């Protein structure tokens, strides 16, 4: 049931397209006369964003198009370098002047859930302009210095019904669409068709990073753990489980190290944008997994008194690697805003692994209990004889 809901989500996300949008505004060009390199129909409030990212100059030329909530209202768009949502957004807000009716754009450094006063923002903005189109939609354009090596940014947008006094916007509605107006702006994927060749290399490397990590930390290592935990119960599988386990983990570790290296490289390529927690978890997973490999050589013999401690250590670190690895894959998918179908596919794979583990856990316990009973029975018979 949960899977069905997950699978249907993207349908709802794309059903919000309104009049206008990327297809209708394909001819929209930036102030210097060039067409924008990329466009995306935003999932809420019928808004659209067009942009060109100049990777070398670190400048983002952007046009945001949306209709105010009512004629004479305002529209706003911003980037949030501090998180998702309104607090922390560096926003461009376009509103008509109450006296002349001319549209003007102001920048807002929004620190909480109140707009505050206009002022300088973290991304110096130039060429700000706004105009009202014949279709009632307002087009806000400008260029922001977002820095070189930007990849995925958080964007927020909003529309409001009224402007009071000297271009001061009245609060927007608090309905679901207004509160959910946030999305990722992916400067890597969506500039790969333009002259930005650096962007397409990064896009390829990012896909490789995701696939290697999902396959290794996300699938092979948990599978290897399942082999070890459950095959061991069957005496007939005795040395076989060990070789299966070691093979799975060594292949998983090898592929994982390759994925980890692409991650370090991607992190170095994106100056100024670091994904702190994702990076830290990635480094921790790599360090713990490396420790596991080396600890194999220090494994005491089966009958050694320290073997018990070694086993406890090996299991604890192994489970930590698996849990942190899977968490970090979800974290990475959230950072990149990957398409829902990839998320759904990975969630399904984790569910299958989880279901297999739970089933085998039950089988293992019943085998162990039956074996104990048989042994007990054997002892009693022996004692009576
Ligand atoms: C934006 O506001 C925050 C918090 O009030 C402040 O620390 C920051 O320096 C401001 N940024 C700019 C560019 O003025």
UniProtKB/TrEMBL annotation:
Binding site for heme b: 209, 245, 278, 314
Subcellular localization: Membrane
Cofactor binding mode and count: Binds 2 heme b groups non-covalently.
Main location: membrane
Signal peptide: 1-18
Listed InterPro entries: AIR12_DOMON (IPR045265), Cyt_b561/ferric_Rdtase_TM (IPR006593), DOMON_domain (IPR005018), UCP037471 (IPR017214)
Residues annotated as transmembrane: 210-228, 240-261, 281-298, 319-338, 344-369
Positions of the DOMON domain: 45-160
Cofactor: heme b
Entries under SMART domains matching the protein: B561
PANTHER family per UniProt: CYTOCHROME B561 AND DOMON DOMAIN-CONTAINING PROTEIN
Protein purpose: May act as a catecholamine-responsive trans-membrane electron transporter.
Name assigned to this protein: Cytochrome b561 and DOMON domain-containing protein
Organism for this UniProt entry: Triticum aestivum
Phylogenetic placement of the source organism: Eukaryota, Viridiplantae, Streptophyta, Embryophyta, Tracheophyta
């Amino acid at each position: 049931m949960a899977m069905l809901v997950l699978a249907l989500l993207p349908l709802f996300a794309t059903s919000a397209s309104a009049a206008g949008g990327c297809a209708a505004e394909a001819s929209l060009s930036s102030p210097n006369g060039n067409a924008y390199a990329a466009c995306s129909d935003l999932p809420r409030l019928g808004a659209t964003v067009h942009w060109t990212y100049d990777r070398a100059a670190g400048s983002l030329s952007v046009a945001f198009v949306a209709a105010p909530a009512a004629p004479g209202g305002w529209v706003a768009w911003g980037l949030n370098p501090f998180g998702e949502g309104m607090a922390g957004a560096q926003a461009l807000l376009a509103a008509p002047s109450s006296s002349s009716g001319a549209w003007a754009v102001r920048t807002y450094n929004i620190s909480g859930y109140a707009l505050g006063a206009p002022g300088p923002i973290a991304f110096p903005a130039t060429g700000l302009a706004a105009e009202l189109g014949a279709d009632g939609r307002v087009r806000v354009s400008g260029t922001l210095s977002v820095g070189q090596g930007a990849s995925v940014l958080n964007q927020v947008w909003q529309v409001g019904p009224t402007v009071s006094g000297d271009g001061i916007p009245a609060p927007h509605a608090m309905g679901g669409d207004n509160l959910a107006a946030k999305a990722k702006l992916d400067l890597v994927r969506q500039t790969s068709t333009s002259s930005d060749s650096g962007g397409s290399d990064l896009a390829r490397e990012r896909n490789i990073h995701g696939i290697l990590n999902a396959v290794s930390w996300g699938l092979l290592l948990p599978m290897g753990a399942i082999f070890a935990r459950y095959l061991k119960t069957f005496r007939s599988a005795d040395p076989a489980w060990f070789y299966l386990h070691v093979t799975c983990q060594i292949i998983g570790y090898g592929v994982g190290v390759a994925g980890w290296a692409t991650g370090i490289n991607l992190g170095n390529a994106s100056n100024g944008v670091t994904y702190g927690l994702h990076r830290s978890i990635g480094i921790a997973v790599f360090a713990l997994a490396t420790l596991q490999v080396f600890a194999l050589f220090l494994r005491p013999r089966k009958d050694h008194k320290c073997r018990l401690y070694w086993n406890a250590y090996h299991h604890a670190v192994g489970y930590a690697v698996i849990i942190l690895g899977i968490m970090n894959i979800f974290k990475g998918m959230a950072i990149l805003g990957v398409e829902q179908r990839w998320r759904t596919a990975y969630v399904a794979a984790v569910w299958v692994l989880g279901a297999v583990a739970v089933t085998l856990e039950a089988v293992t316990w019943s085998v162990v209990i039956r074996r104990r009973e048989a042994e007990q029975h054997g002892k009693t018979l022996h004692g009576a004889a």
